[in-house]
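Support request from a user on the community tier.

User writes: "When I paste my structure tokens into the form, the page sometimes reloads and wipes my input. The last time it worked, I copied everything first. Here is what I submitted, just in case something in the input itself triggers the reload:"
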């Protein structure tokens, strides 16, 4: 049985070269044929990509000038100036909309976001910015001029963002129209010399040429090629999803940029620390800190509220992971509006409460020892839980107790008290090292206080950290040795202030607090859609190959049909010859190789 078609023997590399035909014949007709073959090969491989080709620049009479020859007179000068400006504008637009510049802008946008992550930002934490200014008096003025304290709203970052946006649109629009034109067009006609293409097979068959072409057309369409008959050949192409994926990827980048812009303009987020039993209403004055987008109106805050009924946390009690958190749960009662019925919900880490487009996240928690401060007359000047901030994983906590009003000394004079507080939920015990907690739970709580009196500095009008005590205008309470009055207390114990100035009691109740972040990100869903589409588009552009296949069937001089098959891809790939071999095998089954004719016996041979 005749073998299946195999590619012909390799030709001399000097005779077969991509885009160039080398011939030793000086015949002008052959030279014209070679030029025609090269042109056909170029057309066969054209538009395998929607990447725009830069048109060759026209000759210029003046080096470096787009205006050409400048004619004398005012009219000539104006015409030359117009041509010069228009030429430079076209040049700038071609550079801006090139893929190279788009990648550079994308890199600059990523690089420019680094200072926003490393340097404190005014829109996020103004106190940290002020602390940075005080600690770096030389760098701060430079950072101010460069806009590094407000990177994402700075002029240079906005310029990169807008240029990248315009560049992507300028890249996508012409490529989209070109791709639509390719979808509406027909595959290019078969080149005259199919044997010059990288994947090629040929054989001879007794089948009629028309039958072979019809069989090839049906076979290619069955393989989901877009096929068309043109003359004595069938042209087909496949892999348009590669260019579609490329366009989807770039459109997705625009979607992500738009989502980022919407999110930055219309977002809001704020933090609130709530002691167990207290509540929160979603109004501006209730937030500990609030960061709105530049176009967000505080009147649009959803009117929900919630109360922290209970906070509970569990920890690994023993083993190598002792103290590791297991569960953090905040039980809340919330209402979606003032007239709505209350509902119960448990907020956990990464499981926020969603209300009217906003999300309430549980981000941290700690302890709030209940303290009672009495003045020199025994009157209660302050009583309540004092939230302290943890400084390690075992919830060793620090903070300040500030008594602003209601305190009078033994002489009846008004003054203010301040206490530096240090709290450990599980104390190691006297003589067992420094005062740091050994476990996060309330196994052996101890509160250490140091006392001051004077002015807390809250009347200066400057923002002040409620968890830090400014002692610059305060006086230390002295103990019997003339040192700063300090004392460690167990629940229920009291520290007496000297000279009848009052007392501080560490009550037996210890509350827990939870910190919540309320945020609204209107562009998050759009950004997620863009990210998923970008991944899908990138995968399509990387793993799908754009290729073309031609099948020619013509009657030979001996009456047999000569079948030629060739393939061309956008890039060299081992899959193209394999795919062509499968197609050739299937077509060969329908139009098998003709048997070699019997040799004619020579005259005088024995019959």
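"...and here is what came back when it finally went through:"
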């Amino acid at each position: 049985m005749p073998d299946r078609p195999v590619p012909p023997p390799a030709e001399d590399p000097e005779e077969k070269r991509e885009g160039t035909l080398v011939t030793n014949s000086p015949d002008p007709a052959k030279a014209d044929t070679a030029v025609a073959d090269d042109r056909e090969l170029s057309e066969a491989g054209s538009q395998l990509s929607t990447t725009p080709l830069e048109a060759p620049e026209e000759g210029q009479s003046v080096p470096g000038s787009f205006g050409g020859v400048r004619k004398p007179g005012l009219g000539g000068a104006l015409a030359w100036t117009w041509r010069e400006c228009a030429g430079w504008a076209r040049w700038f637009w071609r550079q801006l909309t090139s893929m190279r510049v788009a990648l550079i802008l994308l890199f600059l946008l990523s690089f420019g976001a680094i200072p926003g992550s490393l340097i404190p930002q005014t829109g996020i934490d103004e106190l940290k910015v002020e602390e940075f200014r005080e600690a770096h008096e030389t760098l701060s003025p430079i950072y101010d001029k460069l806009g590094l304290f407000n990177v994402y709203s700075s002029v240079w970052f906005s310029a990169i963002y807008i240029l990248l946006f315009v560049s992507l649109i300028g890249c996508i629009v012409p490529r989209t129209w070109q791709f639509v034109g390719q979808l509406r067009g027909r595959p290019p006609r078969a080149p005259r010399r199919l044997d010059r293409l990288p994947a090629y097979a040929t054989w001879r068959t007794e089948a009629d040429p028309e039958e072979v072409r019809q069989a090839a057309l049906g076979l290619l369409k069955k393989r989901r090629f877009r096929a068309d008959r043109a003359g004595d050949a069938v042209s087909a192409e496949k892999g348009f999803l590669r260019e579609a994926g490329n366009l989807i990827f770039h459109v997705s980048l625009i979607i992500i940029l738009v989502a980022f812009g919407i999110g930055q303009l219309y977002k809001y987020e704020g933090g609130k620390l709530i002691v167990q039993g207290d509540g929160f209403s979603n109004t501006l004055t209730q937030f500990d800190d609030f960061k709105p987008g530049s176009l967000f109106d505080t009147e649009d805050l959803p009117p929900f509220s919630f109360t922290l009924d209970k906070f509970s946390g569990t920890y690994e009690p023993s083993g190598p992971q002792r103290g590791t958190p297991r569960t953090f749960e905040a039980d809340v009662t919330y209402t979606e509006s003032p007239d709505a019925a209350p509902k119960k919900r448990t907020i956990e880490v990464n499981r926020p409460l969603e209300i009217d487009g906003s999300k309430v996240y549980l981000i941290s928690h700690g302890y709030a020892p209940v303290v009672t401060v009495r003045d020199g007359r025994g009157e209660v000047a302050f009583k309540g839980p004092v939230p302290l901030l943890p400084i390690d994983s075992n919830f060793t906590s620090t903070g300040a107790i500030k008594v602003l009003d209601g305190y009078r000394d033994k002489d009846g004079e008004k003054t203010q008290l301040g206490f530096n507080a240090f709290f450990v939920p599980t104390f190691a015990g006297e003589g067992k090292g420094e005062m740091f907690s050994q476990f996060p739970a309330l196994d052996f709580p101890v509160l250490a206080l140091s006392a001051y009196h004077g002015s807390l500095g809250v009347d200066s009008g400057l923002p002040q950290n409620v968890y830090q005590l400014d002692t610059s205008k305060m006086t230390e309470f002295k103990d019997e040795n003339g040192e700063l009055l300090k004392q460690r207390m167990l629940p229920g114990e009291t520290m007496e202030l000297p000279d009848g100035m009052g007392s501080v009691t560490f009550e037996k109740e210890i509350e827990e607090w939870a910190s919540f972040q309320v945020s609204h990100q209107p562009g998050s869903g759009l950004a997620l859609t863009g990210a998923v589409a970008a991944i899908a588009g990138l995968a399509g552009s990387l793993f799908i190959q754009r290729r073309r296949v031609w099948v020619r069937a013509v009657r030979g001089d001996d009456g047999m049909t000569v079948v030629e098959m060739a393939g061309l891809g956008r890039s060299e790939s081992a899959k193209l010859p394999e795919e062509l071999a499968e197609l050739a095998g299937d077509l060969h089954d329908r139009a098998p190789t003709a048997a070699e004719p019997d040799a004619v016996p020579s005259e005088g041979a024995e019959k």
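Agent notes: The reload is a front-end session timeout and is unrelated to the input. Residues 6-26, 54-63 have pLDDT under 50 and may be disordered. Residues 419 and 451 are 5 Å apart (CA to CA). Escalated to web team.
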